Amino acid sequence: MTTAVASATSPSLEEGHPPHRIVSLLTRRSGATIAAIVTIVGFAVCDYATGIELPFTILYLLPIAYATWFGDRRIGIALSALAAAGLTLSLVDKLSTYQLTWNVVGSATLFVVVTWLVDRQRADVERERSMRRMATEQLRHAERLNVIGTLAAGVAHELGTPLNVIGGSAELIAEEVDSESVRRRTAMIVKQVGKVSAIVRRLLEFGGRTSAARMRLDLEEVAGNAVELFRSTVRKRGAQISIEGSTPVHVRGNAAELEQVFSNLILNALQASSKNVRVRSGITRRSDASVAFASVEDDGRGIPKELVARIFDPFFTTKDVGEGTGLGLSVSYGIVRDHHGWIEVSSEPEHGSSFVVILPLVP
Amino acid sequence: MEQGRLVIADDSAEMRWLVRTAVGQEFAEVVEAADGRELLWTLLRTELRSPEGPPDVVVTDLYMPGYSGLDVIDAWRELHPANPWILITAFPDDAVARRAARLGATMLAKPFSTAQLRNAVHAALGGLP
Fold first, then answer.
1. CATH number of the domain that B32 lies in?
2. Helix (H), strand (E), coil (C) string for A41-79
3. What is the CATH T-level fold of the domain A141-206, as seen in this structure?
4. Is B114's CB within 8 Å of A159's CB?
5. B23 to chain A: nearest residue by CA?
């Protein structure tokens, strides 16, 4: 690696490109060092010429930096202005106009620069902290869902046999007894067993115990198929749905399963009284890697902040009884996780929600 | 028309009853086994008793104490590659489905209807030599 860099830079030296060298010198670290040296020499010269007043202003920096770090930038700038005003008042009788200007302007610049640097540093630390908090939360959430998934799959497995016996027995009774009323009732049992079976199947899907064949897919096409399914429903509700893709995106997965994910997300968006549902797909970056994304954004009633952490839990629903089983999002989560991806949620109550499905990119 | 032998293996007595009641009357003989080990012994016993007899249709659960349904199919295939098997399971995952397909077993996901079971058995009987 080192050899490659050396051999790449040496020809330009031999061929002689001095401007290029100077530009690279002035950039980044070396540039900052030179700028700092020039500034210090400049300060020293000006201090020598005007009387040594500026160094004492460093004491003002302590409260300014403290207020910027624990308060915010505006407080820092306000304090800087206050300190500059205080300096002006204290020096106005002692110094000439030229000396006063240098001291006040120099000090004020110093205050503002320190405020800016502290503020930027604080923003970096806060961003880092929030990213870590988010990652920890995601991990904890994923772990919890994993435990629920294992439990759900276990329960689902145990239910398989009794359901089979109940439904099968009802069918056999209907065959043996020649009575319309018996036939009707056993048909009801079989139908209800079918409903429970559907829930069991979805629990198994959430638990990741079923997996289907995977192939290279166009993510926009998959999301588009789900959008088409809802076109007429959307029209009937007087709402609008749009799909847009910035660039062709390919992922590896099962088309039917991923379609189910987007159908669930679109259905949720519509049930949240949205007037506009926007489905987008493309490529984005997460943790320095390019990933595929497809998002479903709505302008519906949104999700209350305290509920966001629970929306992927099985059987958790805010819909009315009979409107939803509370399994749609859990199943979607399970499917996306089995595709080595994840779902990001952001929501603002009364303004809408955005669900972003992130999947590994396939060339 | 009654023909052949039906072997039912499931650790649930109710499931064995259900399968026997739904399709048992189509066979001359119905034998039950409560786990994988018993299934293997049942097959061996019937094999020793009548080595030239008709092949059995075996309906077996996947997860059972002793050996799993797939393990028994795998072992029995050495003796009778054409023996029809119906594998019932509540876990129709990819790995199981692939292995069942490789071993030539028909999969039935729980809960199945009696019609599905009968269709699978008829297909198995139809495929017998």
1. 3.40.50.2300
2. HHHHHHHHHHCCCHHHHHHHHHHHHHHHHHCCHHHHHHH
3. Helix Hairpins (1.10.287)
4. no
5. A172
Does 3.10.450.50 match the CATH number of domain A215-360? no
User: What amino acid is encoded at A208 in this protein?
Assistant: G
pLDDT in tens, A182-214: 999 999 999 999 888 888 777 777 766 555 667
Does A190 lie at the interface with B, CB-CB under 8 angstroms?
yes
Residue of A nearest to B112 (CA): A164
* Residues of the domain holding B38: 5-126
- Which of B15, B63, B91 is nearest residue A164 as measured by Cβ atoms? B15
Chain B positions touching A161 (Cβ under 8 A) are 10, 12, 14-15, 90, 110
Q: Which of A168, A193, A213 sits opposite B18 (nearest CB)?
A: A168
pLDDT at A131: 85
Mean pLDDT of chain B: 86
**Number of domains composing chain B:** 1
**Tens digit of each residue's pLDDT (9 = 90 or more) over A72-124:** 888 888 888 888 888 788 778 877 888 888 888 888 888 899 999 999 999 99
Residue A311 Rama label (left phi>0; alpha psi -120 to 50; beta) = alpha
Instruction: Categorize the per-residue pLDDT at A11 as very low, low, confident or very high, splitting at 50, 70 and 90.
Output: very low
B12 interface with A at CB cutoff 8 Å: yes
A164 and B CB contact within 8 Å: yes
ipTM of the complex, rounded to two decimals: 0.86
Token pair for residue A151? 């439990």
